[in-house]
Design brief:
The chain is an alpha+beta fold. The chain contains three helices and five strands; from the N terminus they run H-E-E-E-E-E-H-H. Helix 2 runs antiparallel to helix 3. Belongs to the eukaryotic ribosomal protein eL28 family.
C-alpha cells in the first residue's frame, strides 16, 4: 500500500472528482466520497487520507462512515433520531477519530438534517 502523501501527489493535479470553477478564479472543489468540506486539499481528501469521515443521507437516516474508501475497512453508523441528537452523536464519533473535522461534520449534519426534514402543511 502506498503512503497517503504519495497518493496525494499523484491525484492532486488531476482526477475525476475535481470540480474547477469556470470563472477562472482558481477555486477547485472536490466531489470525492469521504470529503466533508468539498475542498480539493490533502487535509479534506477522502482518497488520500487513511482516516476519513463521510456523511450521507439514506432513507431519511444519516449515515456516518469512517475509514478508507474500500468496503472492507469502513465503519458505518446510522443515526435516525432528531437533528440535535444526531449532531451530538456525530460530534462524539468524529472527535474521537479526527478532531480537526468535528466542526465541519456538525455543519454537514445540519445541512443534511435540514434537507431530510419534512415541511409542515399549512391550513
Amino acid at each position: 500500500m502506498a503512503s497517503s502523501e504519495l497518493v496525494w501527489q499523484c491525484i492532486r493535479g488531476n482526477n475525476s472528482f475535481m470540480r474547477k470553477n469556470p470563472c477562472g478564479d482558481g477555486i477547485v472543489m472536490s466531489a470525492e466520497p469521504g470529503n466533508l468540506a468539498g475542498k480539493h486539499s490533502y487535509k479534506h481528501s477522502g482518497i488520500a487520507n487513511k482516516a476519513n469521515v463521510g456523511l450521507t443521507e439514506e432513507n431519511g437516516a444519516i449515515l456516518l462512515t469512517k475509514g478508507k474508501i474500500k468496503k472492507s475497512g469502513k465503519s458505518k453508523t446510522v443515526f435516525k433520531k432528531d437533528a440535535r441528537r444526531v449532531m451530538k452523536g456525530v460530534t462524539k464519533e468524529v472527535t474521537g477519530y479526527r478532531s480537526d473535522l468535528a466542526d465541519i461534520a456538525v455543519r454537514r449534519v445540519s445541512a443534511l438534517a435540514k434537507s431530510v426534514r419534512v415541511a409542515k402543511a399549512s391550513k
